[in-house]
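Is adenosine-5'-triphosphate placement plausible here? Inputs below.
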Amino acid sequence: MTAVVRAHGLGKRFGRRWALSDCTVDIPAGRVVGLVGPNGAGKTTLLRLVVGQLAPTAGDIEVLGAPAGADATLSRVGYVAQSTPVYPGFTVDEHLTLGDRLNPRWDMRVARDRVESAGLDPRQRAGRLSGGHRAQLALTMALAKRPELLVLDEPLTALDPLARREFLQGLMASTAGSDVSVVFSSHLIGDLERICDYLLVLTASRIRLAGDIDDLIASHHLLTGARRDTGWPAGAEVISARHTERQTTLVVRAPRPVDDPTWTVAGISLEDLILAYLKNDAAGVTPLEVAR
Ligand SMILES: Nc1ncnc2c1ncn2[C@@H]1O[C@H](COP(=O)(O)OP(=O)(O)OP(=O)(O)O)[C@@H](O)[C@H]1O
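Reply from A.M.:
I modeled the complex. Tokens:
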């Protein structure tokens, strides 16, 4: 597997607190990777390590074959931070001119098309744009660089539903048939489901799950049966358990479909799979405890 990001034993500490711990992961090239996790899990920290804005406290990280943040890779990585930074005193058009000067692979046509479709006024100063339009400008700057790796930290939060859909369609159109790899953090699972084919789940500063979404869906199952506190199915790892007075519902990971007549087995949606890992994130807490 060719990896765009290779992290080994990666950790970042702020003061006494580890924002990211012991992260060992290879992010495959040419994929659209969804990064999910609860608030404060360490997603932004991981993304800032990827783009070289932070230096690791422990371990190492390689991006596009070089140490993260290396000069040689800067123009090959596009990044939109959560705050969607722009230059407030520059107009939209001046942003595009600056992008053209600074980036060897800049595509002015992509930039102008996006500005037009997002309804941005080229003469408007960026400092006066609405939050959603500022996000659109920041995304345009990242896409028009024609990066090999595009890193987006919750880019959709400020966009209205229509703009969100159009952005996702635009993103899919610009990634289809190209080699660009995308790492995309979001709390909006429906949006991730629409465009991602690879998933990373980060909870409590650790990677809990990484893999191809189709494989993860195939290896996780939803089991329902009569209420019980023991007697879990053999050969399956219980990820989460929920109980009503009469019924127990499990999310389990098992390489083969669970063959146990005391359970009704069903496929799992991406949303249920992610929620099972998010619920069961506190270290040392058993699935039974977190389910109540
Ligand atoms: N520059 C910093 N200085 C001190 N602590 C920080 C800094 N950046 C992040 N942290 C802490 O590191 C932890 C992880 O933060 P991070 O922003 O990476 O989480 P996140 O998963 O992106 O959260 P959210 O979904 O809320 O954006 C948090 O406890 C946060 O307070």
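Short version: The chain has ten helices and 14 strands.
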